[in-house]
Amino acid sequence: MTDAQDTAADSSLRITGGTPPDDAGSSVTGAPTPLLEPREGIPPVITDEAALAEVIAAFAAGSGPVAVDAERASGYRYGQRAYLVQLRRQGAGSALIDPVTCPDLSGLGEALSGVEWVLHAATQDLPCLREIGMVPSRLFDTELAGRLAGFPRVGLGAMVENVLGFVLEKGHSAVDWSTRPLPEPWLRYAALDVELLVDLRDALEKELDRQGKLEWALQEFDAIAAAPPAEPRKDPWRRTSGMHKVRRRRQLGVVRELWETRDRIAQRRDVSPGKVLGDAAIVEAALALPANVHALAALNGFGHRMGRRQLEQWQAAVDRAKALTESQLPQPGQPVTGPPPPRAWADKDPVAAARLSAARTGVTALAEQVAMPQENLISPDTVRRVCWEPPKVIDTESVGAALAGYGARPWQVELVTPVLVAALTEGQGA
Predict the structure, then answer these.
(1) Backbone angles phi, psi at 212, to 5 degrees
(2) Would you call 34 helix, strand, or coil by DSSP?
(3) CATH class assigned to 342-428
(4) Do 87 and 194 meet the contact criterion of CB atoms below 8 Å apart?
(5) CATH number of the domain located at residue range(s) 236-328 in this protein
(6) pLDDT single digits (tens) 176-226
């Protein structure tokens, strides 16, 4: 770490105030310093097994936490695979690895087993890292740490600037990272993303400790590291933008058929589904139920630039949906596994609505008291579930057990249980 970086890291500890942070995020005084080049320059991109073996050995021999980041090609390619992996560790420097030519990084993952990984917004990168064999056993999430510490802006650029006093260029975050060869400015940007990540981690750890929140953060990080891979979403076609306009089951069948056809084409061509056919066009066709290719071509999203063959494949999907029997058509809405939408509570169960109102008021006040977003204090879904079906006995033990049963961490149970006990008791008397 340079003297300037050391000074900047130390200055992050000067966030003043009791429970932060009207001033959290403004700890560094003076104009921030642009960070233009990695300390050791832009490392070469690792594209073969021999070079990868050298990186693995270097990082295994390094010390301290390892900064990890990944770049995807969202909006360009199908899926969320990684197209560049960046790492930095004391004693090893920085590394840029091409997971297209080196698709199995399990050896690197094993070399870093037991090492704390530092990521920013870990849940975004962990799925694509898992695909290439990199799974941390311990982690520190600087974005989540910023939320828990009460910083109003928690993007990596904002955190590095506000905590460490350096400005990161963020102009290449949405580029097509599947491009080969990757341009030098993009590689510089990628290397700089991990340049100060461990420094940021160290400063945030001290700030969380100062606020009495470090144990809370560690519990959150452990929960992220221990979480199993997400289950595939059921009926993903229901997330098509504009679905609220689609009411009839036949129309829902058209959305499903067009979505699934588009997904197969996108997967085969390895392009983002939105580049094959837009959501707005899918909804337009579902509402119109076009009788033929000519009618389909007149709809928005199926214009003059679409060839006859493409139009025929989309019309065939519409026709397949039209031919479905009533029993084959999708049901409107998704099966409800939890409480109804809160707006319906007053009619369905006024007492439950009163409990929820009291709980929300109490949670809001507590979140302000501990200076963090409400959703990080406790999941809103967890609050709804406990209020909709509260324990038979409203006491600290029963409510705490209910919260834990829905996945709340011990620190959340300790803080939120008294608030919910009061709210459930008040709601019962409403």
Answers:
(1) 75, 20
(2) strand
(3) mainly alpha
(4) yes
(5) 1.10.150.80
(6) 999 999 999 999 999 999 999 999 999 999 999 999 999 999 999 999 999
